[in-house]
Amino acid sequence: MEYYDLEQPNELSKKEKEDAMGAYLMMFAAIGAGLPLPIINLIASVVYFFVQKRNTRFVRFHSLQSLWSQVPTTLVNAGAMYWTLQIFLFDNLETTDSYFGYLIMMVVLNLAYFAFSIVGAVKARNGKMYYFLFFGKLCYHQVYQIRDEADQTSDVNLPPKL
User: Fold this and answer.
1) Which of 39, 77, 85, 151 is the least buried, fewest Cβ under 10 Å from its Cβ?
2) What is the pTM of this model?
3) DSSP 3-state of 129
4) How far apart, in Å, are the Cα atoms of 7 and each of 3, 31, 59, 89?
């Protein structure tokens, strides 16, 4: 497989660096909206990725990495929210050691995600690549791999099919 060359910090514009940094700041979307819903951050990351999709590979990489890393965090947070609502609002379940263990795991995951995102945002702002555990390699392959020209379709206007 062949890959495009990585952009170097001195080759990137200030706007590209700021756009890449902005991808990691989507984790604060729910706080900005004033809602404790975990899905808000994922929606913000998806929207940001699709807005930045046509930008440079550097920005696209950081947007995609932020999006992919938001998915497991959102799922764990949604599970905790559902479990908590079942316990306290609907009295369907009792608080158990499993519940408290899940909450501890959720807090640790969120703190790790927060730390990785802050480091990623700072690195992106400085024009440097930062690869998250698990998602960095996946995003690098998706964004920087050179694809055959035959695989890409060109935009061509066609008449309507009758």
Assistant:
1) 151
2) 0.82
3) coil
4) 12, 33, 10, 51
